[in-house]
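Dig into what follows:

_____
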Amino acid sequence: MRFRILGHLDWFREGVSLPVGRRRERLLLGLLLLDIGHTVSVNRLIELLWDEGPPPSSARGSLQAHVSRLRGRLHEESAAEYGFVLSKGNGGYRLDGDPEAVDLHRFRSRLQNAERAVASADRLRLLGLALPEWGGPVLAGVASEGLVRRLGAGFEELRLSAAVQCAEARLTLGQHLLAHEELAHMMVEYPHHERLAALRMIALYRSDRRGEALQVYDETRAWLARELELDPGVDLKRVQGLILHEDQALLHDLRFHGVDRCPRAEAGLEPPAARNKAAPRKAMALETGAVLAQSVRQHPRTGVYVGREAELAELTALATRAGSGSGLVMVVGAAGTGKTALALRWSRRVEADYPDGQLFVDLRGHSEGDPLTPKEALAALLSSLGIPHKDIPHRESELAELYQRALAGRRVLVVLDNAESADQVGPLVPYGTGCLALVTSRSRLGGLIVSHGAPSLRLGPLSTAEAEELLRGIVGAVRTAGESQAVADLARICGNNPLALRIAAANLAMNPDCRLVDYSGALRSGNPVERLSVAGDPESAVCRAYGLTYQRLDQESAEAFRLLGRLPGPETTVAAVAALLGRSLGATRAVLDRLHSIHLVESIMRGRVLLQELIWWYARFLANAEQLAQARWESRRRQSRWYQGSGEAAAHRLHQRFPRGELSDAGEVPASPRFDNRKDAAAWTDAERPEIVKLTPFADAGAERDPAARLLTDTSGTVGMPRSGWPWPLSRPPSRNARKG
């Protein structure tokens, strides 16, 4: 039993062509043959079978029907007797059988054998067995044009590689005219391929046709300028120069820079039969000079690393489940929580589980400059996977397909660090069940949870014990031994944030005469985020880390975040934030959701809002630095009016004799709450007492300008009461007017 998927799809039994069925059944068979011996996920099959538009709601059911009919055809033709079995498992479908029965895989296998040959004559003979297998683009006539390009990008490169190697072997053996004939035929299809042009020029030059060789250069240069607006590359120009100078080297040797035999693309040559063997595989060679994508091994260790054992164990459990499912695990959290360090530490622990390589690419989601596009990231990853630069396609869909082919049948960990969005990550997630993408981001990447069912590990601050251990590890056990209370205080000021802790520890390490208690006092004397920086190193600053998140906000969200710095503390209610912003509750929840999605707001639960304390201090820093005094006063006035109205309503419900105030909040956005019973009023009072106490000094300062601020100070003693219902002055007693009843 034989199958053909190059050029068109055919199925043969004992030399007789067999009918397959409808177009989608034929395409389904071709897709399964393309990845013979490997499970193809249901989602991927649906995406490819309905590639020209959104799949219908019935796509999953239709796929099951196509599979059922295809399984029936295989049974009718006794395919199992030939070793071909279609089965379901691991969220997809799998066709098992002999890869050598499929023309594409025979082509790849024979090309690999040719690659191993040392002598040019042997290589040429083996290439002569491989090249006749090529019948045309993968699944042409069955798949759409776009899908043919996607599926065939990597295989077209293999065909070009085979043609180049064949020409080089012929030139080495003195078969110049045959080489030129084959190269001329190839250049009709690939007029932009500079390596083919260079070899064709050499073949003509060696055949005493120097003028024609230079004409090939001119034609190639004109095509590149006209179609791509590019100049010829260095290699092609060098061949032209050697021909112009009648250099004798071209007559005898191909081994000079840019023209010698190119390295094979490791990603695409190993046939499924070889991949299925149990013998250990050689890890893919990673380009150490890659700028955008590197091996995990190339990243320096962080030095002192404490704790996170629970998180590392959870990450291992999530990766185990994702390995046979989404192929994707996310580590998300606010700036400075150590997401990258955790990802690298875990990657080194599981290195043996990914023998074919561990790649790392910084997607620059929250960095200076623009984030990487999926196209840029794919090109970087392909380069690190050993694909020569000249063989990397330009279209994103072709890049993605070649990337998936490069990873097929291998066990590779791809660390996608500092991601911005689900759209940026989606094309980079490996399809193969042996690979895993580990994504870190300041965004919660909810889109990947929807599209991939991706599990997520949220990384928060260190525990108190871990934070103190980190400080001791950097500052030194001897120095911290006598200042244990100062160590605990410094950890609290830093919010147990690993970046803030490292910066504080670095400052102490650089100033050995500074006592920890004095440094903590200096941080507490003002806004700590302004002081948590390392002199002479602008990269090491808490403000800069949070600023990289802040700079990605839209104008509305940025303004709202700054205003959160006017809150008296890092925890309050959604209604209080709405009063501060001067917006409705619905609009406020929407902007808080956006801030929550990138960890600038920690949680929004049961009507309450919580920020990490350092992030609140950063919002306060921005509010003071970027907001005009009038804007600050207006936001404070709205906040005071809302608390005044709310406190007055609570006090009146708890004490019927307590008078209504002189202000009405009619028309205010949002309106102050109205309490239906004493229980609700007392609950609000207990929850908001700390915020009102913090706000009272600010209201005192503005009482002369705003009656709302004056009434807030007048009623603060009353709303700060226990559930017993009798006034309990916390700041000062109510004014004479407020006590009248």
About this structure: The first strand starts at residue 2 and ends at 4. The first helix runs from residue 23 to 34. Residues 423 and 447 are 8 Å apart (CA to CA). Residues 255-291, 662-667, 699-741 have pLDDT under 50 and may be disordered.
